[in-house]
Design a protein that fits this description.
The complex is a heterodimer of chains A (291) and B (313). Chain A is mostly helical and 291 residues long. Chain A has helices spanning 25-49, 52-80, 91-111, 114-122, 127-130, 136-164, 176-197, 204-219, 231-238, 241-254, 260-289. In chain A, helix 6 (136-164) runs antiparallel to helix 11 and helix 7 packs antiparallel against helix 10. Classes of the chains: A mainly alpha (291), B alpha/beta (313).
Chain lengths: 291, 313
């Protein structure tokens, strides 16, 4: 280590706020009360910025890969066996909104599991802002805001590629982007509350991926309409944010016919899960950080 | 700047308590800290130091008692109180995914400070923490001492008048500790009030104008390091070694020498105002220790006397 006590010794930083100094604590507190959630979101976005190429590469790579494999490769078989099963549209168009929503859901799963445990346990990053004027609820909000923006960026890219594949014939197709983001949050935010309640990593997140996220991905009407499943399995779709998001997405991208009442149910279900998770996360964060 | 003792205390605690169920982590402690003072909380592990710091820092709720920081109750005015403070936690919680300088910038944003202020300020603090060359490095490449200095730099980003330091030098090598002490002393000179917890006696003697010895959630003694030594120990200590088998038997023959006698497994301590004179008395009684040492009384003697020698788990 090359640390020397002699030589030029820097003076203590000035403690008196003057011209160019820090604003007084009253202003810090007022700004933190008003904008604290955004300040924390800024932090998380800076962290995401450090792996922005990974995010961008997967945002482009994942849709291209899936759309080619499933929507072009598999679709040529499916479509030749006679359409009709998929509401009169190509298999690619049927599949695209489901893939869009599931990509958001998977990304949300990543952002709301290990990083949350990291904040409490491993590198304890939540305890830094916790000692600042920010409130615990603002740490939760900021984290959610940042992830929402990340999901939005990737969903926009995903949708642009879907559109390039010609898989979103409706002029309202772009609205599937916010729906996909909401689907991601509806799964991710409750997961955040769960992650915040864990004090030890015993592989719970791997179990969540394997026994919750993956079945939801497979049985939420992603690759085939939910009503082709036996009634015994259909409930998986009903409780799955992915199915609700996908159904809404299909209505938007190719005019998949669903009664307006059911559309409202889809939307309310997604919002309700998000809000419930959000409240629970705020409670858990406050309990955990304030102990 | 000398502490201004007539001014309103920046921190005042009265009968402050924190219970976790039946367990009283902090059990009715009272103290006041005037502006500009370096105030230490000294105590063994589990004495309630960190819990007290968390309450002062406005992140943990008290069970009973009163607490005010800059005249504000941290439970009712959390953000306002925390805006006044700089906090150096016991465990570093830097964001290791960000670079060194970015850690300072994001922290400054929590206070709503604009980038036009933060950018030059971050550079100034990196200079102060001797980390200028590491500005663009990833945090996980830093040594323990560097991380600690970065945490201190981060705590100063809002130019706080009160700095809370929870065991600031635990786990550092002697060089790194001395650099940190030097930096902290400089802050004290510039008028920042320092509140620190430690279980290092030399650290307390180096940095603290005044300190309280805390044990089992209660204050055992309070005063400047010199006062505490004067009140709770003698001027000098004579350390004698007769060999571990003989120490106890010899102790009986040493009765009456000095003000107080303490027998430990490996040595006998005689607390006396004049250690050399005490040693003469020992040899005059025909006792010849294997080794003898006369030293000044230290804060450690006070600490061990007040909190006991048995291990705290």
């Amino acid at each position: 280590m090359t640390e020397h006590r002699t030589g030029a010794r820097p003076a203590a930083p000035s403690g008196t706020p003057g011209p160019g100094g820090a604003h007084p604590p009253e202003i810090s507190a007022a700004r933190a009360r008003a904008f604290g959630s955004w300040y924390y979101a800024e932090h998380v976005l800076r962290v995401m910025n450090s792996y922005r190429w990974t995010i961008l590469a997967s945002s482009v790579g994942t849709p291209v890969m899936y759309l080619f494999a499933m929507g072009v490769g598999l679709a040529s078989l499916v479509d030749s066996s006679g359409a009709g099963t998929f509401g009169g549209v190509s298999y690619l168009a049927f599949l695209a909104p489901a893939l869009l929503a599931s990509a958001a859901l998977m990304a949300a799963t990543n952002e709301f599991t290990y990083p949350v445990m990291d904040g409490f346990k491993w590198r304890r990053v939540y305890y830094g802002p916790h000692a600042s004027p920010l409130g615990t609820h603002q740490i939760v909000n900021g984290h959610i805001i940042a992830v929402t923006l990340r999901l939005a960026v990737m969903s926009v890219i995903y949708f642009a590629i879907v559109a390039l594949f010609g898989a979103s014939p409706s002029p309202w197709g772009w609205v599937a982007v916010p729906v996909a983001v909401l689907s991601g949050l509806a799964f991710g935010v409750p997961l955040m509350a769960y992650a915040a309640s864990l004090t030890e990593d015993k592989g719970q997140f791997a179990l969540v991926m394997r026994f919750i996220a993956t079945p939801l991905f497979l049985f939420s009407g992603t690759f085939f309409p939910l009503d082709t499943l036996p009634l015994l399995l259909r409930w998986i779709g009903w409780i799955s944010p992915l199915w609700h998001g996908t159904e809404l997405g299909r209505a938007l991208t190719y005019g998949h016919a669903i009664p307006p009442g059911l559309a409202a149910v889809h939307l309310i279900f997604l919002i309700a899960l998000t809000v419930l998770g959000w409240r629970l996360a705020q409670r858990t964060f406050a309990r955990r950080l304030g102990a | 700047m000398p502490p201004n003792l007539t001014a309103e205390p920046v921190i005042a605690a009265r009968a402050l308590s924190k219970h976790y169920g039946e367990f009283a982590a902090v059990d009715g402690i009272s103290f006041e800290v005037p502006a500009g003072e370096a105030f230490g909380l000294l105590g063994p592990n589990g004495a309630g130091k960190s819990t007290t710091m968390k309450m002062i820092g406005g992140v943990s709720q008290r069970t009973s008692g009163e607490l005010s920081i800059m005249g504000l109750d941290p439970e009712r005015h959390g953000p306002e109180v925390r805006a006044h403070l700089g906090v150096v936690p016991q465990q570093d919680n830097l964001d290791e995914e960000l670079r060194v300088r970015d850690n300072l910038l994001v922290y400054g944003r929590y206070f709503g400070l604009p980038m036009s202020y933060l950018k030059p300020k971050a550079d100034e603090l990196l200079e102060f923490a001797q980390l200028t060359e590491k500005a663009g490095a990833k945090v996980d490449s830093l040594s323990g001492g560097m991380k600690r200095r970065l945490t201190i730099a981060r705590s100063l980003i809002n130019e706080p008048k009160i700095l809370l330091l929870d065991e600031p030098t635990t786990g550092l090598d002697p060089q790194a500790r001395h650099i940190l002490w030097d930096r902290l002393f400089r802050l004290k000179e510039s008028g920042v009030t320092l509140i620190l917890t430690t279980h290092y006696m030399d650290e307390a003697e180096q940095l603290c104008d005044r300190l309280v010895v805390v044990d089992k959630g209660r204050i055992m003694a309070e005063g400047s390091p010199a006062t505490l030594i004067r009140e709770h120990s003698t001027r000098e200590v004579l350390e004698l070694r007769f060999g571990s088998e003989r120490n106890t038997t010899v102790a009986a023959d040493l009765e009456g020498i000095g003000e107080r006698l303490e027998t430990l497994p490996d040595r006998v301590l005689i607390y006396a105002s004049d250690g050399e004179a005490a040693l003469e008395q020992v040899t005059a009684r025909g006792l010849h220790p294997i080794t003898s040492l006369v030293r000044r009384s230290s804060l450690e003697d006070v600490f061990l006397r007040l909190t006991g020698r048995s291990l705290v788990d």
